[in-house]
Design a protein that fits this description.
The chain is an alpha+beta fold. Among the domains are: 70 residues, Alpha-Beta Plaits (2-Layer Sandwich), CATH 3.30.70.20; 58 residues, Alpha-Beta Plaits (2-Layer Sandwich), CATH 3.30.70. A two-stranded antiparallel sheet has the order 1-2. Strands 3-10 form a two-stranded antiparallel sheet. The N and C termini lie far apart (82 Å). About 12% of the residues have low confidence.
Length: 198
């Protein structure tokens, strides 16, 4: 004869379950989707501007880099620096918009423009600290990167993998590695110089 288990099963309505005599919240149901971001690797970018072409083709049905939401900026040190919207947590562009056409979708991590509301005043263009807002002279509205609603064309077509769409946790890991390398280089350099002087 089997003994009946005294342990209570999790309640589907409350999401709480017992552990010993304590109750602990069941967090598995409330885990938010992993936020993703566009990662730009300047070492790999060759300045081919393919990202600009596929972006304009996707959003405007024309191959016109001037109408693209991503811009490749030429720099002396680099072949090209792809510049796009940072999808800010507290977007300045949205704060200055007089008609509230710019909002942030926290679930997807995307700042969006409602083109039906946009009046083309360009206040957001002046407010953006990254220069990521673009005024489209053809339609007389402002445009910006919306990460193609979670499937960015620029990352798919970047032959050199300078643009990739990754989990934000991967970006943090890369930053930690870069900081660790910089720190170790700083520590090693004086030690190597002292050893060479002996």
């Amino acid at each position: 004869m089997k003994r009946a288990s005294r342990r209570k099963k999790p309640s589907p309505s409350t999401g709480w379950h017992p552990i010993g005599k304590r109750w602990q919240k069941d967090c598995r149901r409330r885990v938010p989707p992993v936020a993703k971001a566009l990662k730009i690797d300047l070492e790999k970018c060759v300045g081919c501007r393919t990202c600009e072409m596929v972006c304009s083709a996707k959003h405007t049905n024309t191959i016109n880099p001037y109408r693209s939401c991503i811009k490749v900026v030429r720099e002396k040190e680099w072949e090209g620096v792809p510049m796009t919207c940072a999808q800010c947590e507290d977007p300045q562009c949205g704060a200055v918009c007089p008609v509230k056409a710019i909002t942030r979708d926290d679930k997807m991590g995307i700042v969006r423009i409602d083109f039906d509301k946009c009046i083309g005043c360009r206040m957001c263009v002046a407010a953006c600290p990254f220069g990521a807002m673009n005024f489209d002279a053809v339609v007389k509205k402002v445009s910006k990167c919306d990460l193609c609603e979670g499937d960015p064309e620029c990352a798919k077509f970047c032959f050199y993998r300078a643009l990739t769409y990754v989990d934000e946790s991967e970006l943090a890991t890369d930053k930690r590695r870069a900081a660790a390398k910089k720190l170790s280089d700083t520590v090693r350099k004086p030690a190597e110089t002292a050893a060479a002087a002996k």
